[in-house]
Structure formats: structure tokens, C-alpha cells
Design a protein that fits this description.
The structure is a homodimer of 295-residue chains. Chain A has 295 residues and is α/β, with parallel strands linked by helices. The first copy, chain A, has helices spanning 11-22, 34-41, 65-73, 96-108, 121-126, 138-151, 164-192, 197-205, 212-222, 234-248, 254-271, 279-285; strands at residues 3-7, 26-30, 46-47, 55-60, 82-90, 112-115, 118-119, 130-134, 152-157. Chain A is globular. Chains A, B: Its EC number is 1.1.1.411.
């Protein structure tokens, strides 16, 4: 049984904290939102405070690079509360260069650092069945091992230092983000041609045009259910990281850039807090098309 | 047993003609390329000539709308050689409006017309296991039934007149074409980050970023094998149809347009006759990245 801090108790971190608790760990959660924290303490976890015992592992599941930097190494950062030789598991989607910087800071404090972006959504987070795209030293993998076992059913071991984990996540986000936007165009085109969208899903599911995202998100459009499982607002951030990495490599990615522009336009149009399937609304509205409505 | 003409004996039509022969039909093939025709006659088929007996069914598997129009209703077109009440099964990817025009011409000759674009690739065509996205009158479906049974394992019945079949195919091609271009950007980005592409395929295959096209085409890049199963040159044509349909509906499709521009650039760069996975070469070369090479 390890002492594990979980920083960030949003849709992913919440389920990860509960998975760690189910595995028997002593979990200390932190989130500025007291309601989120209460769910963890109600399940046997504790609130992380300055008096909490030093941790073996810190799992950081915040939104972005800035929050990661602050949560770990800011003035009130938690890295210095780990045991000597403790391990940081950093899960936010960030640029590989940033992950490398964080690893260096951790190592300067005598800590191990696992570059460990996550994939799978909130349901699998709650079930302890995430995929983790991880890279780090063998010592970082060893230190994180028990926590990873509790949170994930698939651990991709991608390299011996920070960087490749975040690079792999960027590649996945490029594909996922473009595929959702392509779904939006496909459903708008189908609507313009008078096709029934439920039938389109049936056909595409067994055709060469299918994608994981199409099969997962098209039902949201068909059901007119834009309750956010994953928000539009995720994509300007994640595809922004992808294009930033690509810019550094002097690699033009016109398709990714176009998808990024579409998500930014959707956010500007007030769709930012809706499910990312709502990109379809942006496309359909440009031609005055009627999508299914909630009945 | 029916008398069936098969017009166009390329990578798809060839396998379809052989599937029809295996099912016991009397097949008359036509293709300007004598080698292709010889493969069909060597398997028990016949060369289609002006003296051939009148057909029950004509399966038209040519490249595009112009060839379809010429093969069916041109000066030397074959529609007039069908039995009265015979059925045309038209498989080329065309705009729905064009399919509606062809149906009207067929009906004016006392024939039935099935708008029947195909999907599945040449291997499944040879195995009689295509997917067919079909629409047409009940009489057209009845007339085509035995031929469809021999050529396909999945027949999507999408409407009672020509149009929806071709519209559905356009939706599928939008997705498939964008997904291949997205794969190209993803593999180029992965290369720029020093990731091993075979490992990337392993990870993406079980992640939210996967697509049918990614899993099918990424191995071509990893193996540096650009033998054309489906050529780059298909996509300026097929995505051109998609954007043409969308333009008519006043529907902007920025992602599809960007993918179309990429395929045109690839064709201009001399990649037109290579496998469509070669879109990755166009993207990688723009940043001077080295993809796997054939060893």
C-alpha cells in the first residue's frame, strides 16, 4: 500500500483517485472544487494538506502545462512533499519538450518522473481501465508501477526518458481531433443529401470510412445529446499543442490546422462547453441544415 | 442462371466478374485492355460483342460518370443490348444527381437501374464479399438480386430510387479520404518526434485515434510498400465529387477541401499512380523527414 497524492479531480482524475482507493492505496486528493474533493473523501480518501504524510507517488491530472508546472513546482507545488526517491506520474496532454523540462526539475529534487498521458475517457478512468502512453526511466516505471496497475489496463512503454509519451499522445490527439471534425462534415453532407443519420452510422460502421471517433460520437448527434463527455474546448488546446510541436519541427500539417481552426470557430460560436460532437452543428449551420433535435 | 454483362474489368470489376462466374452465371466481359479480358475468358467467361445474347443484368464498374454515361448510353453503349425489363447495376462513384439522370435514361428504355456504389477493395471483390451501398426501385433490386448475391456479402438498401446509394458512397469517401490524409500527418508528426512507426501503429490501433484506414494503410508506410492497392489518383476524383455535391448544397467542407488539395498536390508531385498511403511522403518531404525505406 502506497501513499498517493492525486492532484486534479475532474472527470478523469476523479475516477483515477477512486481506482487507486479500490486498490487499497492511501489516497490524498487535491482540487480547488470542494464538491469534487468531497466525492473522494466520501469513498475513503483524504484531503491533501500541508500536514499530509509524504507521498510515494504523485499523480497529476490537471488541464495543461501551466497547471502541471504550478501543481508540481510552483510556490505551493506538491513535488517537495514527496518522499525522497518518490515518483511523479504526469498525465496532462503537454508538448514533449515541456515533459522533458519537468523530468529535469523532478530529478533535481531527487524524484522520478513518468511522462504518462492518458486516454480512454471518464468511464474507463472510473473503472481503472485507462490506456497510458508512458515514457520515463526504469526507476520511474518501477516507482509508478502500483499506481499504474490500479488506474490502467494498458500501459504503452514508449521510451526511457520523458518525451515519447507526450509525443505519442499528440499523434493520437491529431487523429482523434481530425476524425471528429471529419465526422461533422460527413454527417452534415449526409443531412444535405436527405440521408437518415442512424442509417449512415449503420453503414459507415462496417465500411472503410469508419473510425473509433465516428462510432463513438455520431450517436451523440443522432440523439441530439450534446452533454459534454469531452468538450469542444479540449481541442483548441490539444490540437494547439500538436501544431506547436509540428511548427518546431517545421512540419506543415494543413489538415490538423484546418480542424484546429474549426474547433476555434466552434468555441467562438459559443459551443465550447458542449460535447465535441457539436462541431457538427457549426458545419451544418453554415448551410442552414437541420440536424436531429432532442424530442 | 442469368446472362450478365460486366463492363470494366479493372481491380474491382475483374473480381466481380469472376465472382459472378463462380455463382454459375453466363458472364460477358468488356474492357479495352485485352489482358484483363483474357483473365475473365480464361475462367469461363466470354468477350462481350455486338452478337452476344441479350442480357438480364449489366454490371457497370468503370472509373467515373463520363465512362458510365458512355458505356451505358453512348453511341456504342450497352444498355440497348439488355432484355426488355433488364437491370443495370451501376457501381462507379458518381454524384447522386448523375445517378438520378442515368436512372431516368434507363427507365426510358424500359430498363431498371440500381444506383450501387461498391466498397471493400479488390481482395473482397475477388471473394464476392463486397459491400454495396444501393438504392433503386423494388423492381431494380429484384432484377439485380442474383448478381448482388454473387458479388457482395453486405447490401445496404438505402432508398427506393437512384441517389441515396451515391450519396452514401460520397459520405464514406469523405471520411476515408480525410482519414488517409490524417494518417499521413500523424505518421509524419510521429517521425518528427523520433517515434517508431510500428510502435505507433500498435498504440493507435487500441486508442481513440484509430480508423479503419489508419489500420489498413499505415502498414504500407511502415513497410515502405507503395504498390497501389488504391491509388492517390482516386482521391482528386472522389473528393472532387464530394465537394461538388457539397457546393451544390452550399455546404462548406473545409477539412475535405484541404484533403482534396493535398491529394492534388501529391498527384502533381508525381505520386498519382502510387498507393494512396504515399500521401505520407508528400507531408514528410515538406519537412525533410525520412520515412521507412524499402530494404
Amino acid at each position: 500500500m502506497s501513499i498517493i497524492y492525486t492532484i486534479g479531480l475532474g472527470s478523469m482524475g476523479q475516477g483515477m483517485a477512486l481506482s487507486l482507493l479500490r486498490a487499497g492505496h492511501e489516497v490524498y486528493g487535491f482540487d480547488p472544487d470542494n464538491e469534487r474533493l468531497a466525492k473522494v473523501t466520501a469513498s475513503g480518501g483524504h484531503a491533501l494538506t500541508r500536514k499530509t504524510p509524504a507521498a510515494d507517488v504523485l499523480v497529476c491530472v490537471v488541464l495543461n502545462a501551466t497547471q502541471t508546472q504550478d501543481a508540481l513546482f510552483g510556490d505551493d507545488g506538491w513535488a517537495k512533499h514527496l518522499k525522497s526517491g518518490g515518483t511523479i506520474v504526469s498525465c496532462a496532454t503537454v508538448a514533449p519538450d515541456f515533459a522533458i523540462q519537468m523530468e529535469a526539475k523532478a530529478q533535481a529534487l531527487g524524484l522520478h518522473y513518468l511522462d504518462a498521458p492518458i486516454s480512454g475517457g471518464s468511464v474507463r478512468a472510473a473503472d481503472g481501465q485507462l490506456s497510458i502512453m508512458a515514457s520515463g526511466t526504469p526507476a520511474a516505471f518501477d516507482g509508478a508501477d502500483k499506481a499504474l496497475m490500479a488506474m490502467a489496463d494498458t500501459i504503452h512503454r514508449l521510451g526511457d526518458q520523458a518525451g515519447p509519451g507526450s509525443a505519442m499522445k499528440a499523434v493520437n490527439q491529431l487523429l482523434a481531433g481530425v476524425h471528429i471534425a471529419a465526422m461533422g462534415e460527413a454527417l452534415a453532407l449526409a443531412t444535405s443529401q436527405g440521408l437518415d443519420l442512424a442509417r449512415v452510422l449503420d453503414v459507415i460502421r462496417v465500411s472503410a470510412g469508419t473510425s473509433w471517433m465516428f462510432e463513438n460520437r455520431a450517436p451523440h448527434v443522432i440523439d441530439a445529446d450534446y452533454t459534454p463527455r469531452s468538450m469542444i474546448n479540449i481541442w483548441p488546446k490539444d490540437l494547439g499543442i500538436v501544431t506547436q510541436i509540428a511548427d518546431t519541427a517545421k512540419l506543415p500539417l494543413p489538415l490538423t490546422q484546418t480542424a484546429l481552426d474549426q474547433y476555434r470557430a466552434a468555441a467562438d460560436a459559443g459551443l465550447g462547453l458542449e460535447d465535441d460532437a457539436a462541431i457538427t452543428k457549426l458545419i451544418a449551420s453554415s448551410a442552414g441544415l437541420r440536424l436531429p433535435v432532442d424530442t
